[in-house]
Write a structure and sequence with these properties.
Bound molecules: adenosine-5'-triphosphate
Distance between the termini: 40 Å
Number of strands: 12
CATH superfamily of the largest domain: P-loop containing nucleotide triphosphate hydrolases
Number of helices: 22
Structural class: alpha/beta
Strand order of the largest sheet: 6-7-8-3-9-10
Main location: membrane
Subcellular location: Membrane
Strand content: 5-15%
Membrane topology: Multi-pass membrane protein
Protein name: ABC transporter domain-containing protein
CATH class of the largest domain: Alpha Beta
Helix content: 40-55%
CATH topology of the largest domain: Rossmann fold
Keywords: ATP-binding, Membrane, Nucleotide-binding, Transmembrane, Transmembrane helix, Transport
């Protein structure tokens, strides 16, 4: 143990000792189930926080719950499965609480319900009574979820960001706008140091295809991203998994410091080492969806001993309680007095007149909860208005955050860096475009310069034009279709933890697409136009291809936003391309398409771009025979030069409509996701 860690442990022991003096926990008989209500200390520290200290004191929030049930309805006569049954408990402020239990006991399910990441769906039904500062809340509501810092088990970090950038990004977007740049930088440095990430602070996070920092370092970066905002409530799903014992202890020390600062910390953990186990304040031991024990870690030996399961000498208590949970029959455990009943009386929840999006009862002044253990003791919960006004509470939306413009700019910069760092993807995209353009150029070499009075030449010129447009459409829409499903985990994590608005995300993505698509189209048109020898104006040809790419990309983004799985998005690609190709008039004259289906061509950009392209390329054919052939071609796709303005206008409208629909779908997905 380093001297720093020892100091941290000492601080912890001091805090716990202090709390014990006031706790009635140890006076309970074994019949009294250990509970949290007695231990809830609701008075907040009001000292002015040091802004660049990640462990600056903060006002906390208390979370209590009761009657949590999660049931999987059985089909075809199969009995219902009770995944969670009458689960009750709480997360006291200034304390760390670990949810433990054998595999499948319901740890993650409980954490997910409390964090608003699980709800009734299909055969799965979820019931709960969850109180935040004694306000009954639905954590699946995005406004509630934003009050809870959540570190999921799977790290969903941007692979091309460094830990320093990821933590800075979170701090900049989530701390009050008034926070000075220097303070943020200091805060990020302190966070990196506390988490033992200084040595790899400027190495990219990496992922399956891009080498970066180690799995443990990634995990700690995810924790840093959440803790840097000085949250008052922190949930973590298996934060120590994948960490070596030293890093796990280091992380637990950090969580301890966060709790000491005033936060409520709740996390799931698999079998912890005794050193780590003894560092928790409380545990919730789950067994087959029920609460087998919950309360102070210090009471565990006594609680188990009184029920005939004395912890053997030199045995890790965590190993022992897990052993008991797994080895002893459920009925026997019940008979022995495990699975304590909830005897708290939480009283009527507060509901009235509070804008939950803004303050979650922070304007509440007094509230009493009785302990329900037969004594008359009660605790008064008071919220110090000064604490709120000083903006000490983070993650509650009560302070002014950076503007949508700043959010958009920061995300644009991040996306731009992503492009630069993930060179393989960008070079691949531009390289493939150039290769395809070259192939088209070689196949249609100087075809555009051939006399047009020969039908075969005209056909080839039309074919070349079609191929360039199709290449432009496919080459740009395909990556756009995949973008959201691929970025989804990062987007949803960041959105649900209040990093930015859907509009900012959308605008930053759009700006990047505008630039990359322009570059891609320019390469495609430059190479193919020169090699094929088309007669159109170069700028016109480029703008026309670019318009097609932008509208097709908008359609692809819309479809991409509506699916969650990148594989499904890949399978959807023909849906973007085939109907356009079928109906635009390349392969079949529109008059031959069944009338009930023909109208659909007006919804596709290719129809308009094709007409504009053909009008530009073939309107001015020299010679009577060539002129007649060109007019025939123009007529066959129903192009009309007088309607050019209408084609451009419709392209613009389609672009806006697809983009707005995508925004709408994205917003729905973001607020409803679980
Ligand atoms: N959405 C769901 N649909 C069906 N069953 C589910 C669902 N979510 C959880 N379960 C079941 O509920 C039980 C508890 O799962 P949960 O993931 O909460 O356990 P856990 O204690 O976190 O396990 P582990 O330690 O292995 O991660 C498991 O049997 C699991 O299969």
């Amino acid at each position: 143990m380093t001297s720093e860690e020892k100091t941290a442990y000492k601080n912890k022991s001091h805090t716990k000792g202090h709390e014990k003096k006031h706790s009635k926990f140890h006076q309970k008989s074994h019949k009294d189930p250990p509970g949290f209500v007695d231990d809830i200390e609701m008075n907040h520290e009001t000292s002015v926080p040091r802004e660049n200290d990640p462990f600056a004191p903060r006002g906390g929030k208390a979370l209590l719950w009761q009657n949590i049930n999660m049931t999987l309805k059985g089909k075809d006569g199969v009995e219902d499965r009770h995944l969670l049954k009458d689960v009750w408990g709480g997360v006291p402020q200034k304390q760390t609480t670990a949810i433990m239990g054998p595999s499948g006991a319901g740890k993650t399910s409980l954490l997910n319900i409390l964090a608003g990441r699980a709800k009734s769906r299909g055969a799965l039904s979820v019931e709960s009574d969850i109180r935040l500062n004694n306000y009954q809340v639905d954590p699946t509501d995005i406004s509630v979820r934003k009050n809870i810092a959540f570190v999921a088990q799977d790290d969903s970090l941007m692979v091309t960001q460094t830990p320093r950038e990821a933590i800075y990004f979170s701090a900049k977007l989530r701390l009050p706008k008034s926070t000075k740049e220097e303070e943020i930088l200091n805060l990020v440095d302190s966070m990196l140091e506390e988490l033992g990430l200084s040595h790899c602070a400027d190495t990219i996070v990496g992922g399956p295809l891009l080498k970066g920092i180690s799995g443990g370092e990634r995990k700690r970066t995810s924790v840093g991203v959440e803790l840097v905002t000085k949250p008052s409530m922190v949930f973590l799903d298996e934060p120590t998994s994948g960490l070596d014992s030293y890093s796990a202890v280091q992380l637990c020390n950090v969580l301890r410091k966060v709790a000491n600062a005033g936060a409520s910390v709740l996390f799931t953990i698999h079998q912890p080492a005794s050193e780590i186990f003894n560092a928790f304040d409380n545990i919730i031991l789950m067994n087959k969806g029920r609460v087998m024990y919950q309360g102070s870690v210090d009471v565990v030996p006594e609680f188990f001993k009184e029920r005939g399961q004395k912890i053997p000498k030199n045995y890790n208590p965590a190993d022992w309680i897990m052993h008991v949970a797994q080895a002893v029959d459920l009925d026997q455990l019940d008979a022995d007095g495990f699975f304590p009943k909830d005897t708290r009386v939480l009283g009527e929840p507060l509901r009235s007149g509070i804008d939950k999006k803004k303050n979650f009862g922070l304007s509440m002044t007094r509230r009493t909860i009785s302990s329900g253990h037969g004594d008359d003791s009660s605790k008064t919960i008071s919220f110090d208005a000064a604490v709120v006004e000083q903006g000490i509470l983070s993650n509650n939306g009560s302070f002014e955050r950076v503007s949508v413009m700043t959010q958009t700019r920061m995300m644009f910069v991040r996306e731009f860096k992503n492009l630069k760092r993930d060179k393989g993807a960008l070079v691949g995209r531009l390289g493939f475009t150039t290769a395809i353009a070259t192939l088209i150029g070689v196949v249609f070499w100087k075809v555009g310069e051939l006399p047009r009075d020969v039908p075969m030449n005209l056909n080839s010129q039309f074919g070349a034009l079609t191929m360039v447009l199709m290449a432009g459409m496919m080459g740009t829409a395909q990556p756009a279709l995949l973008t959201f499903p691929q970025e989804r985990p990062v987007f949803l994590r960041e959105y649900s933890t209040n990093h930015y608005s859907v509009v900012s995300y959308f605008l930053s993505r759009l700006t990047i697409e505008v630039l990359v698509t322009a570059l891609q189209c320019f390469l495609l048109v430059l190479v193919s136009f020169l090699m094929v020898g088309l007669q159109s104006n170069f700028m016109f040809f480029f703008i026309n291809t670019y318009a097609l790419a932008m509208v097709s990309t908008a359609l692809a983004v819309m479809l991409g936003c509506s699916v969650e799985d990148p594989k499904l998005a890949t399978q959807m690609m023909p849906l973007v391309f085939i109907p356009q190709l079928l109906l635009a008039g390349f392969f079949i004259s529109p008059t031959l398409i069944p009338a009930w289906l023909r109208w659909l061509r007006w919804a596709f950009s290719l129809t308009y771009v094709m007409r504009l392209g053909v009008l530009e390329e073939f309107s001015d054919c020299q010679g009577e025979k060539a002129s007649m052939a060109c007019d025939g071609l123009i007529n066959s796709i129903e192009a009309d030069s007088d309607e050019s303005w209408w084609y451009w206008l419709t392209l613009a409208v389609l672009f806006v409509v697809f983009r707005l629909l995508a925004l709408f779908i994205l917003r729905r997905k973001a607020t409803k996701f679980l």
